[in-house]
Write a structure and sequence with these properties.
This protein has three helices and six strands. It has 126 residues and is α+β, with helices and mostly antiparallel strands. α2 links the parallel β4 and β5. α1 packs parallel to α2.
Length: 126
């Protein structure tokens, strides 16, 4: 799971290169049935993960939910992005995990939109 995060993070970092022209920031509260998850991203060039999610049981018969944090830690370190993920509510680990991954996907798609010519920073560089 961590290795997949490393590969995805490296691919994202390669895609954004100098981070020119992209929107850069994105956030969403994503509902998935009874689960509600906040995902917020900054494609900043700086690695940071805040993962505030408690699963009801850490392991199911087929998956260790603790690996989700390991996956995102690898993604942010390799992609050099800032990512906050917080569970607001939820009672199904499946729905919580689904909301996390879908929220991340929506944020990445939104933050990578081309909006300008330069870098989205008051300093003009990241």
């Amino acid at each position: 799971t961590e290795d997949i995060g490393i590969v995805l993070g490296k691919a994202l970092n390669k895609i954004v290169k100098e981070r020119r022209g992209i929107k850069r920031f994105s956030s969403i509260f994503l509902p998935m049935d009874e689960a509600l998850v906040l995902c917020s991203i900054d494609i900043s060039g700086r690695s940071y993960l805040n993962f505030d999610v408690k699963f009801l049981k850490n392991k199911s018969e087929s998956f260790d939910f603790n690996l989700i944090e390991d996956f995102f830690n690898a993604v942010v370190n390799e992609a050099r992005i800032t990512l906050h993920i917080r569970k607001e509510r939820g009672r199904s680990n499946h729905h919580i995990a689904e909301a996390i991954f879908k929220g991340f996907a929506v944020c990445i798609k939104d933050a990578l939109k081309i909006e300008r010519k330069g870098v989205s920073s008051t300093k003009g560089k990241l």
